Description:
Oligomer: homodimer
CATH architecture of the largest domain in chain A: Sandwich
Radius of gyration of chain A: 19 Å
Largest sheet of chain A: 5 strands, antiparallel
Helix content of chain A: 40-55%
Strand order of the largest sheet of chain A: 1-7-2-5-8
CATH superfamily of the largest domain in chain A: Regulatory protein AraC
Amino acid sequence: xxxxxxxxxxxxxxxxxxxxxxxxxxxxxxxxxxxxxxxxxxxxxxxxxxxxxxxxxxxxxxxxxxxxxxxxxxxxxxxxxxxxxxxxxxxxxxxxxxxxxxxxxxxxxxxxxxxxxxxxxxxxxxxxxxxxxxxxxxxxxxxxxxxxxxxxxxxxxxxxxxxxxxxxxxxxxxxxxxxxxxxxxxxxxxxxxxxxxxxxxxxxxxxxxxxxxxxxxxxxxxxxxxxxxxxxxxxxxxxxxxxxxxxxxxxxxxxxxxxxxxxx
Amino acid sequence: xxxxxxxxxxxxxxxxxxxxxxxxxxxxxxxxxxxxxxxxxxxxxxxxxxxxxxxxxxxxxxxxxxxxxxxxxxxxxxxxxxxxxxxxxxxxxxxxxxxxxxxxxxxxxxxxxxxxxxxxxxxxxxxxxxxxxxxxxxxxxxxxxxxxxxxxxxxxxxxxxxxxxxxxxxxxxxxxxxxxxxxxxxxxxxxxxxxxxxxxxxxxxxxxxxxxxxxxxxxxxxxxxxxxxxxxxxxxxxxxxxxxxxxxxxxxxxxxxxxxxxxx
Lengths: 264, 264
């Protein structure tokens, strides 16, 4: 009835390289039962531990970097805003501000024990339970998690990152439709292009160009969902050549622009 | 938006006589944080302990008998069927069968720890939270509790009672609109009227007549809610004199029949 997915996965020997780096139009709730490593949201690093709760909002670029020597077991729920029930749908945690921290991280015991109980309960329902009952219970879990994170607030002390990279990401996020050439970005931050690229890759694990392309296509996907015609989206995002936009979009999103349209 | 109430109460020196014996058209979920005593549903006794979960369906006559030497702290939620979310609304635990045990009792650790976490979460929200957010969270708690009780099933081993009284209550519940004179009831169970009355009072804490009157007026309230005119309800329930029905109804329900009508 609402867009959502839910997985409970255990990986005995996680290979960091095999974990997808992505940016999507859904919310994501990650609850770590067991693991060791890092979680990176747009250049901000959070420690990944037993009980870690991480929540990302639409279009926040994120990925996990688990250590290979520790099994990694987690629940992941992806959902649309409408999957959150009634009053909780209006909570500010669902709408990131421009200057807000990236992702919401929590290691508060009250949040962890709530999620542990409610996910364990969902597990007990098992695959044999009617799909609509599992969905109803998943909605209650997601609603409680969102409310708990709102009450608790983000745990900013656990976040770490590089100030220049953070400022750069902020700038890119706010100017996605403008000129984001390396010359321009390096000029803004008063460091050399080469140094800037190396610094960015060291803290985010990817090139600046890849980050910009991914964020631009995420914004394009959002506009398409809101019913804006593909040709206009291409122009807004800075592509005068529609077929170049189309190829870039498909290579990053894995689907054609039409698949994101209003009636899909 | 839906009919419900929710209380978290602690009584330092509970006086069993001050706890209401009642029978209502709502579901009731009782979660005992701390206490010692008994919970009685239509003559069936359950032990009341820290962590006890008790669930009664509409028209199940019930009351609590706490020991005065132990503080009694509990959550009580009363709610209509429509307060339970989506798919969970169809669970069989919400529809008692004629031959089912009375009330649903659970002392399963999995149910208790789920309720402890989710009620604690509701407490943390506090009175300062918006009313509609508290209501949304209460809905998630009730839905999870109903589902957990369905999964766990009733704990029949903790129930105790007298077989004759149970059979008598069964008979009364199934024949509320028929002749339930003491002569007839005693005849059915092949014991003397005096012995029957004494046995009933010993196991339920009330007279047979009081029990019958209460159950009849609960059935009347249900019919009124379903839109049946008060005069017809009176006749169905065995009252040829409407004013006698009216007085009896008000004395037991505390409100006039009109207050239970379809449009109230």
